[in-house]
Amino acid sequence: MLNRYTTGPKFQTTAQLIILNGKILYVQQINIKYYESFTIFVIEIIFFNLGKILSSISIRENIENGEINLSPFASKAKNSLGRKTAEENCDIRTVFQRDRDRIIHSNAFKRLKDKTQVFISPTGDHYITRLTHTLEVAQIARTISRALKLNEDLTEAISLGHDLGHTPFGHIGEDELNNLLPNGFTHAKQSYRIVEFLEKSGEGLNLTQEVKEGILNHSKPKGDFFDKKLPETLSLEAQVCRVSDAIAYLNHDLKDALRDGIITVEMMPKIVSSDLGTTHSERINTMVKDIISTSWSARGEMAEKNTKTKPKIQMSFKTRKALNIFRDYMFQEVYEPQDKSIEGKTARKIVNLLFVQLHKSPDKIKDIPLKKNHSITDYIAGMTDQFAIRMAKKLDSSITKPLERKY
């Protein structure tokens, strides 16, 4: 069709990937021949059927291959210890990403929005709940993990699942159940129990071993929790979640305590402001940066690559000392007084009443949906604050009055 003199064709090439279910089926390459003095284009379309060559390459595998850039001490999805029940791999998500998604979509995660962090039945809109606490932990933990070249997906999954087993009314409800049960009760063990045995109508979420171990070992005793001996197999990502939990709750609980008026800034130990910061953001920034710099060997660079000794997530002596003083102060002036408050005493009475009455006469409350593997303790521990209040009110209408919100 070209019948005039020309200097020859020039080419412009574009390519389009055709992807289905995370796999490249073929590439469509379009070669466009054009001549400067003509508006007529000769288009050559070439299809390369790469299905046979690239059918085994998935988005998940690309992510896993990219983990070579993580620290040699980081947990790799490809090398996961696996699940209790083996499953076929996903084409798009790694095992740790799937765990994160399973936790987010669980019923226990949804209930966190109506569970107490510290202040029981507050009337303000901005008090921290167990859900917002969980999100803050995940944000801080991911920041630290990214800086140390650890596996962010594993860190996030552990962070989002660490408090699934919390009772109504926060640690007050937990402590009351602990007093009532012969073998005791801890929210960390209950979180593990939820993901392993209770979710999905008693089938569990079938999470990876790394996520379950991180959830089970996130709790911290009073005092210097950095001194606590941790399981040798505990991942660095789990250690990051453990310390991020403390960073998050100390700072947002202080914010709530100041908002509630039970303490003032002037009452705080001087070392908190001098060594950690005078504002919420300054304190978090100081602690996060200190952990990153003190734990820098976790990146596995230079000489550390050749060591067989696994590093630990640590804080400098100065910041660690200030954190422990800060934490002791919060226990003394915020957490313990809340337990002794009228709201705290009422919460204990409610948990006690539900425990005693449901074990004594479960038929008093009809249609208790106890499913496979569930016990009455599981049922009580899984309640939100308001659900526990409503159920207790049916048994004793006078017991819940101090917690009935007034708007």
Descriptive account of the structure:
This protein is mainly alpha-helical. It folds into two domains: 10-54; 61-401, Hypothetical protein af1432 (Orthogonal Bundle). The chain is 48% helix and 8% strand. It is built from 16 helices and three strands. The chain has helices at 51-54, 59-66, 95-104, 107-111, 130-147, 152-161, 170-180, 187-202, 209-216, 236-260, 270-275, 280-294, 317-340, 342-360, 376-381, 385-395, and strands at residues 10-20, 23-34, 41-48. Strands 1-2-3 form a three-stranded antiparallel β-sheet. Helix 9 crosses helix 10 and helix 14 crosses helix 16. The model is unreliable at 1-7 and 20-55 (pLDDT under 50).
How large is the radius of gyration?
Answer: 28 Å
What's the CATH C level of the largest domain?
Answer: Mainly Alpha
Helix content: 40-55%
Strand order in the largest sheet:
1-2-3
Residues in β-strands, percent: 5-15%
Number of helices: 16
The helix/strand class is mainly alpha
